[in-house]
Description:
- This is Sel1 repeat family protein.
- By secondary structure, the chain is mostly helical.
- The protein has six helices and no strands.
- Helix 4 packs antiparallel against helix 5 (82-94).
- The longest helix is centred in the N-terminal third of the chain and has 13 residues, at 10-22.
Amino acid sequence: MTEKKAFLTWEESVVGLQTDAEQGSARAQRLLAMRYLRGRGVPKDETIAFYWMQLAAQQNFALAHRSLGELYENGSGIALNMTLAGHWYRLAAEQGDPIAKKHLQRLAQPNT
């Protein structure tokens, strides 16, 4: 008798996540982007991560707005752009994301 596994591996779980992302789920798109950023179940690829994060952000998903801002701020998968980082942080902050609000406050501080 074959015993069922309680948990899927990163590689096994990415299949369903990829399907949901391709069908337009903003949550799945963001999670898939995070997988590509970290190389969990997929090869690490910041360009592909940026692609999926951008799709999620275009659906007005606050977490994706913040994450996209972080990608722009760090130059991950896209050229560093503090103006666009601030734009995406602002959109997330307007939806109540407390971390995005902190990012905006930090960006407003003069560099010392």
